[in-house]
């Protein structure tokens, strides 16, 4: 592959190659010399039009550990504020010799447009409500390292699925790798077409009607939808909580925070409904006290901090395979 734009770009063999390479990269972090010369002379541009902590810093750390030159571009404080377009910004960066552009953008599909304009590789670091493929890869890596495999796992993805690029990329990648996914949330926050494809009849709850909006994505056959978190928890290996993205919501269909936490928040009693071996994931940033309580987020079952560490190894693997490995 030349670009990584979507979870759908990855077949099982390529995804497994990335996870295996990430495991090799993880050993670098434990060494005295933490740098590899693999991307010496290459330039990686981090092009961020939307806020980020984990993704931006981990791509920067990943590129530096591979000895690439890194240019960090934030739309805030740049000529974007003067009205410069994404295309002109991209061509400017191209002229400075970018071999790879890692892009986060509020518009779904922006990385796909960018891929038509630049010669280098484009990596989607999160586009609107559409996709976040490297998050799905680091999540799969974390499942594999904690539970030994991805194939055959039952993963519940819980909460604001409608606005979640993490959910869309995970549904695609997890199904490619042979896991079963159940999407859980209030009817307002499950994409209406996905609920229909899964054959889930929305219950008449106080939480409102079906979820309209968000970005379309390929529906992975076999994906289930449930509105009952308590019924799903005893049957899963992984529960992945999603951030409630209030900034993307219209108040008219936003459930009250108290009602949301009562029905869909992961708290102590719900944690105890999980099987003994099950793990708790969250991509971050978290709304503590809303979709997850501190008791759940900080429990020994939680992999939230590990996910961040694994993100560096997985992003090293992605940059290495796009720029230095299989393609060049
Ligand atoms: N998980 C994630 O994408 O976090 P950031 O928004 O901090 O990058």
TrEMBL record:
It comes from Micromonospora rhizosphaerae. It catalyses: carbamoyl phosphate + L-aspartate = N-carbamoyl-L-aspartate + phosphate + H(+). Residues 2-144 form the Aspartate/ornithine carbamoyltransferase carbamoyl-P binding domain. This is Aspartate carbamoyltransferase. Keywords: Pyrimidine biosynthesis, Transferase. Residues 225-322 form the Aspartate/ornithine carbamoyltransferase Asp/Orn-binding domain. L-aspartate binds at residues 82, 165, 243. Pathway: Pyrimidine metabolism; UMP biosynthesis via de novo pathway; (S)-dihydroorotate from bicarbonate: step 2/3. Carbamoyl phosphate binds at residues 54-55, 104, 132, 135, 284-285. SUPFAM superfamilies: Aspartate/ornithine carbamoyltransferase (SSF53671). One of its GO terms (cellular component) is cytosol. Belongs to the aspartate/ornithine carbamoyltransferase superfamily. ATCase family. It comes from the Bacteria. Heterododecamer (2C3:3R2) of six catalytic PyrB chains organized as two trimers (C3), and six regulatory PyrI chains organized as three dimers (R2). The lineage of its organism: Bacteria, Bacillati, Actinomycetota, Actinomycetes, Micromonosporales. Its EC number is 2.1.3.2. NCBIfam families: PRK00856.1. It is an enzyme of class 2 (transferase). Catalyzes the condensation of carbamoyl phosphate and aspartate to form carbamoyl aspartate and inorganic phosphate, the committed step in the de novo pyrimidine nucleotide biosynthesis pathway. It holds the Pfam family OTCace_N. GO terms for molecular function: amino acid binding; aspartate carbamoyltransferase activity.
